[in-house]
Design a protein that fits this description.
By secondary structure, the protein is mainly alpha-helical. The chain has helices at about 1-15, 20-35, 45-55, 65-80, 85-90, 105-115, 120-135, 135-140, 170-185, 205-220, 230-240, 245-250, 255-260, 270-275; strands spanning about 150, 155-160, 165-170. The protein contains 14 helices and three strands. Strand 2 and strand 3 (about 165-170) form a beta hairpin. It starts with a helix and ends in an 18-residue tail after the last helix.
Length: about 290
């Protein structure tokens, strides 16, 4: 499917979709073709629906993966093969994703994580930066020294998710930590956190995830779903400190305030102060009958 593959790549790039989206879409179309052992332009609409059921029932893919699969297949058949939009949407319905609330660490747990024995200076600085600036794992991997704007107290995120630049906070304590790290490691590759194996490249997202996994294990903490929980914790702790939601939205780089507002569900002080309707009832104590 070399010609169709190139057409798919062309359609993705002309729309400015991200590299991760490009890789995901190409991967799903390739797996579809291998599943039926023929070119995807020869696969019928009813077979597309059957393939989704195969992913759900046999491959046990979750709603998130299935939503990406539907997006990839819809994109390919609509924009590359120009099949009827109505027919494609009928054949490839979107599965409703469950609402999952972010899992966060308490400030005490963050302190335990960042000073646990067994973390070297590089890894501690890496995790501290991720939490203190509310970064995605890909964003901390792509940090460069010139992105640390010490005089302005900001970190510049170059082309984050959605290909958007933004600025986030650079706290004095994080700046001190970054300077201590720089004095020891002096990275020369142009990346703030270069790979130990390929010094001219930045750390991979997989390597950073492994660092986080090892740190939580050493600190005897739950992983809370992975390193992205540090970003969730950053947002939640700012909200609990009284920082307005629109400010947090800008720091996180969310396009929609509704995305940021999910942290309202886990503000600790609201849940602690909320007594619930049972407290308003005048209930007499239930007396146990005498034996």
């Amino acid at each position: 499917m070399s010609i169709l593959r190139q057409k798919l790549i062309d359609e993705i790039e002309v729309r400015g979709l991200s590299r991760n989206t490009k890789e995901s879409y190409i991967g799903f179309i390739s797996r579809l073709s291998r599943h039926y052992r023929r070119s995807p332009d020869r696969i019928r609409d009813e077979e597309l629906r059957a393939y989704l059921l195969h992913l759900l029932r046999e491959k046990k893919n979750g709603p998130g993966t299935l939503c990406i699969a539907v997006s990839a297949l819809r994109f390919f058949y609509r924009h590359v093969l120009q099949r009827s939009t109505e027919a494609i949407e009928t054949a490839l319905p979107r599965m409703k994703k469950p609402v999952v609330r972010p899992r966060v660490f308490s400030p005490d747990q963050i302190a335990r994580l960042l000073q646990v024995d067994g973390l070297n200076l590089k890894h501690r600085t890496l995790l501290m930066t991720t939490y203190a600036a509310g970064l995605r794992v890909s964003e901390v991997c792509h940090l460069r020294p010139e992105d640390i704007l010490s005089e302005r107290g900001q970190i510049r995120i170059d082309q984050g998710k959605g290909r958007k630049d933004r600025y986030t906070v650079l706290s004095p304590r994080l700046l001190e930590q970054l300077r201590a790290y720089w004095r020891v490691y002096r990275p020369q590759s142009g990346w703030m956190f270069p790979s130990a194996y390929w010094p001219d490249r930045h750390l991979s997202t997989h390597a950073v995830m492994l660092v986080f996994k090892q740190a939580t294990k050493l600190a005897r903490l739950p992983s809370n779903g992975g390193i992205h929980s540090l970003r969730h914790s950053f947002a939640t702790h700012l909200l609990e400190a009284g920082v307005p939601l629109p400010v947090i939205q800008r720091l996180l780089g969310h396009s929609n305030l509704a995305t940021t507002s999910r942290y309202l569900h886990i503000r600790r002080e609201i849940l602690v102060e909320l007594k619930g309707p049972l407290e308003a009832l005048d209930l007499k104590p239930l007396m146990q009958p005498s034996a």
